[in-house]
Amino acid sequence: QMEQEVSQFIQATGEPRRRFQPMNKIERSILHDVAEVAGLTSFSFGDDEDSRYVMVFKKEFAPSDEELEAYRRGEEWDPARAEERRRLRELAAQQEEAELDRGPAPPGPPNDYKDKYRHLIGSDAAKAAARTMEANKAYGCVPVANKRDTRSIEEAMNEIRAKKRLRQAEDE
């Protein structure tokens, strides 16, 4: 019976694939063997043993990977929708390639900190503060004249070393 159905399928010119009724494992195995001998491609689909079925394809109409995935999900194959998905993937690949050609993004934060803290600093506070440019003694901006120690770092270090040598000499 399966040989007759496969023979009818081969002779039907307008039929690129045929779906057979759900069958048990042994019958599916026999149908796969018959299809292979006849020069056809066959695949089994379905979730559980009771609903698994076989689809037979003519070699010139062999299914694509996308088509097989659609059948595995239990969906009907729609070539127009598949073509649309393919075009979208190509477009995404072109966009990704264009981004790679542009080079890496400039270093820095992804957003402006002023936007994040606008409610605290206001929109013009930073500009106004930059215009005044007054030194604030609370933040350590002390004029040199007001400093007690006017020595350089080297002078201070030399003085500390001399005191250490003096202490060592006294201890000896």
Automatic annotation (TrEMBL):
Task: Please give the SUPFAM superfamilies that the UniProt record associates with this protein.
Answer: R3H domain (SSF82708)
**Disordered: region residues:** 1-21, 75-116
Q: Which residues cross the membrane?
A: none
Its name, as the record gives it, is SPAG7 protein
Q: Which gene encodes it?
A: Spag7
GO molecular-function terms, A-Z: nucleic acid binding
Q: Which residues form the R3H domain?
A: 1-59
Q: Cite the CDD domains for this sequence.
A: R3H_sperm-antigen
Q: Which Pfam families match?
A: R3H
Recorded hits in InterPro entries, A to Z, give: R3H_dom (IPR001374), R3H_dom_sf (IPR036867), R3H_sperm-antigen (IPR034068), SPAG7 (IPR017330)
Q: State the species of origin.
A: Catharus fuscescens
Feature: compositional bias, Basic and acidic residues:
75-90
